[in-house]
Amino acid sequence: MNTIITLRSPFFALDSAAIPELMGKVSRAPVQHNHNPAGAVGGGGPRFWFSVSPQLQQLNYAQIIMEVTDKEITPEFVKYLQPILSASIPGARIDVRQLQYAAIEFPVDILIANNADVSAGQSAEDIRTLRRLSAQLEDIFRSLPNTAGVRNDWDTESSGVKLKIDPDRANLAGITNQDVAASSTSAISGAEVSTLQDGNKEIPVVARLKVEERAQLSDLQSLYVYAMQGSAKVPLTQVSKIEHSMDTERIIRLDHFRTIAVRCFPRPGVLSSEVLKAAGPKLKEFEKNLPPGYKIRMGGDYYQQNKGFGELGVVMAASIFLIFLALVFQFNNAVKPLLVFAAAPYGVVGAVAALWIMGTPFGFMAFLGVASLIGVIVSHVIVLFDFIEEKHEEGEPFEEAVIDAGIIRLRPVMITVGATVLALFPLALHGGPLWQPLCYTQIGGLCVATFITLLLVPVLYAIFVLDLKILKWEVKEKNVEEATAALAAD
């Protein structure tokens, strides 16, 4: 199972030395792993996993991919590495996580957005409000004991330096904003004045101040500004002044609106649903106190789970309805299909009980296992009912038909269920975390539903026929005469 280590620093750029430094920590881990990891500095590599999106080129980002030889120890490996690597590089944010099959980067993810139209003049206030709200939300999650790595996706603000030009003084001196920008940029960053041809290469020639003349911010005060449309030459400090500010360099939009996401990881052994449940009362209070126009939306596991379950629920409801219609046409009765589905809830109870016993969360694969489990249960009940209907056509009394169906169909059902359960055990033990929920739901559900199918369903059938009189059991006269003749012949 692969493990991904991401390193992001909001304050400084990373160099190639970051990878060996991290690998030195990883190599001392008391677990077996692949000693040939792949890494990238200055951005992510190409897409190597379908649920991991490639990262854009950025100087403060690094990524390491490792393949652990034993997939069962991956959670313990991640749990061991996270605190060690987090303390190795001060000021950097290091995340060690196991690659997942779902495209979810952060299990707990809450988005804050202003859905109102904001003019250009109100942009700065809108950004400050979003940052203030995200800070409050981060404090809520940091106060919980079962969260780790709380952050927002805008990162921290960066310090900026701006030249604020005095338009009146600049006009009197014959200097334009373009003159100030060209002079300051040429002095600090340099201006290309020519190109040097070296074989097939073109090397730009850049003119700028010496290193000692531009090493400090105060050196800007000694610069001169030259007018492009004249011979004016004035000190930079006479037409502008230096201003310091904290700027938001990374702004993310969702549906054209500025959106800031507050994210965190649950601590090892804790589910994201448990984190949201613990933060539920504070989140409701926070949502009530939001300024007008601002809303929060749930992301992460909560959003993906509700979306996936909703889509599967629609498909499952449509499938059950179509199966019901098919059974109505088969049995020519609208009540018997309800008896066919009578064992399905007990199978679901057995599936949930198996997940609880094994300590496995109910996720997408478990839901998929329950959906397939219902199909298997329904097929077993249909076989049982079909045998009863055959005995009905033969003119056998109801009690004998039900008993014969339970006895004769016992061995085929038990063989089928036993073979399925035994085949699922190796996959549950060695298939990894992807297949375990599906296997546990199938094993638990089949074990419970089998006895319900063979015992409870015939009892319910008898109640509907003998006690409630909803279903009628009529023996045809021809079949009775044939049975009487057969007895007389014997």
Textual characterization of the structure:
The protein is of the alpha+beta class and about 500 residues long. The protein has 4 domains: about 1-100, Alpha-Beta Plaits, CATH 3.30.70; about 110-155 and about 250-300, Multidrug efflux transporter AcrB pore domain like (Alpha-Beta Plaits), CATH 3.30.70.1320; about 160-245, Multidrug efflux transporter AcrB TolC docking domain, DN and DC subdomains, CATH 3.30.2090.10; about 335-490, Multidrug efflux transporter AcrB transmembrane domain (Multidrug efflux transporter AcrB transmembrane fold), CATH 1.20.1640. The chain is about 50% helix and about 20% strand. It has 15 helices and 15 strands. It has helices at about 20-25, 75-85, 125-140, 165-175, 175-190, 235-240, 270-290, 300-330, 335-340, 345-360, 365-395, 400-410, 410-430, 435-465, 475-490, and strands at about 1-10, 40, 60-65, 95-100, 110-115, 145-150, 160-165, 190-200, 200-205, 225, 235, 240-245, 255, 255-265, 295-300. The strands form 5 sheets. Strands 5, 6, 13, 14 and 15 form a 5-stranded antiparallel sheet that branches. Strand 10 and strand 11 form a beta hairpin. Helix 10 runs antiparallel to helix 14. The chain is elongated. The mean pLDDT is about 80.
